[in-house]
Structures are given as structure tokens and as C-alpha cells.
Design goal:
By secondary structure, this protein is α/β, with parallel strands linked by helices. The protein folds into 2 domains: 121 residues, 2-Layer Sandwich (Nucleotidyltransferase, domain 5), CATH 3.30.420; 157 residues, 2-Layer Sandwich (Nucleotidyltransferase, domain 5), CATH 3.30.420. It has 8 helices and 12 strands. Strands 3-2-1-4-7 form a 5-stranded mixed beta sheet. Bound molecules: zinc ion. Zinc ion binds next to loops.
Length: 301
């Protein structure tokens, strides 16, 4: 059975694994991202992890999931490098070709999570879905029949978090105002709480005090309702078979999932025949999805 490496590059950590063609993990590695503004340092970290995971193994290639706009055809980062300083415009494939003998494929991190769900998870039996990964921000991916990932004409498709939900609303890190990411993300729950109470506390504490703190309850409920409204918009644009919702915030979904569904049903013009599903893979989704792209695209390297 073939083996590939899947790497999940984040602003704080790089996680990697050697993965079999059936999705089984053979080896794992993890390191702190040296997010210091110098992309050559991160390229060396990626190459070191590839070398570590492939030592003594026959490996077909390495897939790398990265934040930002990713030109997956040429393996480079476009104008936005996500939460990695200095990462925009890095030619990852060319940089790694000097450091590692293995062929490399690159993809946006939310697209990797969607590729994982399509391969092994909640999207396995679906021909189309929209995935939302909700953590610090809100990432998105669009999976279409036949095509698979819809990358857009400039590799900027499915940047769903930067759809404008509230005209002239909260300022976003992308430069726009009122992006859905400012209302439907972990950071948004914290912002909601601050607006209500004047106090800044972390999202985990807000979620934990849902039953005892009225401000916490309102902050999470508003997040859930705003997310439900956004799903109504997405339904009208894409009409997928399902929405798959993943990312760190779904760990607390028992307290907000029903509110989100109810708001979606109340707001959308036709709530029938669409499923809203939790993602089945958490932190491993990025690595699995990146590896799946190596298995799926033998000629694209
Ligand atoms: Zn934005």
C-alpha cells in the first residue's frame, strides 16, 4: 500500500504524519512553527519534518496544507499568507525542491480539511458540500460533483469567512468591515462577550460558563444565530447537499448547535432537503486531507 506524508502548517504548530493509502497513521511529528517573518526558516522546518517522517520509508510524496491563498497548481502562496508572518508570495514548491527530494503538493488548509471529510468523514457519501472550519477564524471549502475542490479562477474561492454579514460592521483582519468571521468564530464569541460585559475573557471560559453567566449565554447564542443566518446565504448561492461544520469550536457544539439550526430554518426561504453535519475529523483532518491530495493526484507533481 502506498504511503504519503501529510503536513498541516499553522501559525503556532506544524503537525505531520506518515499516512497509508487507507488513512492509517504510521508515524507522527509535531513542532512549534518558527513564525518569525522569515519564510526560509519555515521551509527548512517543513523539509526537516518530511525527512524525519520519510526516513527508511518508501513515500510517494508530501502534501502540505497551509493558511492563506494557495496556488495549488504551482505550489506557492499568493497575496495572503494567513496567520504566518511573511508567508505571502512564498514559492514553497521551488523552495522545498532544494531541500527535499520528495515531490510536494500544496493546498489551502480549509480545503485540506474538506478533502479529508470527502475521503473518510462526513462527506464520504456526498457529491457536493460546503465545509466551514470554525476556530480562531472561519475557513471554508466548496466541494462540487466531479470536480472536487472548487479553487476559483485565482485560488481565492471559498474564503467564506470574508463574506460580509453585517454592512459596516466590525473591522476584519482582511481590511473589510463586517466579515462573517468577526461574528461566527471563536474570536467572535469573545468579542460578543466583551461588547456585552466590558470584560475580555477567552472563548473556552465563556463556553464553560454558558449555564451560569448570562453574558456568556448571550455571546454564544448570538454566534450560533449569526452562523445560522450565514448558512441561509450559502444555501442560496451554492445549494449543496450538505453543510459540514468543523474546527475547534465544534467541540462545544452541544450548547449552540440547535440554536444555529433553528435560526437557519427560521431565516432561509426553504429549509428542506439540506443536511447540516458536524465534521468527523478534528486536528487530524488537515494532515489526512493533504496526504489524500498526494494519493489522488499522481500526475500533479
Ligand atoms: Zn475579512
Amino acid at each position: 500500500m502506498k504511503k504519503a506524508i501529510g503536513l498541516d502548517l499553522g501559525g503556532t504548530k506544524i503537525n505531520g504524519a506518515l499516512i497509508l493509502e487507507d488513512g492509517l497513521f504510521l508515524k507522527r511529528a509535531s513542532t512549534n512553527t518558527r513564525n518569525e517573518g522569515d519564510p526560509s526558516i519555515i521551509l527548512r522546518q517543513l523539509a526537516e519534518m518530511i525527512a524525519q517522517l520519510s526516513e527508511g520509508e518508501e513515500v510517494v510524496g508530501a502534501g502540505i496544507g497551509s493558511p492563506g491563498f494557495v496556488d495549488s497548481e504551482n505550489g506557492r502562496i499568493m497575496a495572503v499568507g494567513g496567520n504566518i508572518a511573511g508567508w505571502a508570495w512564498t514559492d514553497v514548491k521551488a523552495g522545498l525542491s532544494d531541500l527535499s527530494p520528495l515531490p510536494v503538493v500544496m493546498e489551502n488548509d480549509a480545503n485540506c480539511a474538506a478533502a479529508c471529510e470527502a475521503w473518510l468523514g462526513a462527506g464520504k457519501d456526498l457529491s457536493s458540500f460546503v465545509m466551514l472550519t470554525i476556530g480562531t477564524g472561519l475557513g471554508g471549502a466548496i466541494w462540487l460533483p466531479q470536480l472536487g475542490l472548487w479553487r476559483g479562477s485565482n485560488f481565492r474561492a471559498a474564503e467564506l469567512g470574508h463574506s460580509i454579514l453585517i454592512p459596516r460592521g466590525r473591522k476584519c483582519t482582511c481590511g473589510q468591515y463586517g466579515c462573517v468571521e468577526r461574528y461566527a468564530s471563536g474570536t467572535a464569541i469573545e468579542e460578543n462577550y466583551f461588547e456585552l460585559s466590558g470584560r475580555r475573557i477567552d472563548g473556552t471560559s465563556i463556553v464553560a460558563s454558558y449555564d451560569v453567566d448570562e453574558f456568556a449565554r448571550q455571546s454564544v447564542d448570538r454566534f450560533a444565530r449569526d452562523l445560522g443566518i450565514f448558512l441561509a446565504t450559502l444555501r442560496n448561492i451554492i445549494d449543496p447537499e450538505a453543510f459540514i461544520i468543523g474546527g475547534g469550536v465544534i467541540d462545544s457544539r452541544t450548547i449552540w448547535w440547535d440554536t444555529m439550526i433553528n435560526e437557519f430554518k427560521n431565516q432561509v426561504n426553504d429549509p428542506s432537503s439540506i443536511e447540516i453535519l458536524p465534521a468527523q475529523y478534528g486536528n487530524d483532518a488537515g494532515m489526512l486531507g493533504a496526504a489524500s491530495l498526494v494519493f489522488d493526484n499522481p500526475l500533479d507533481r
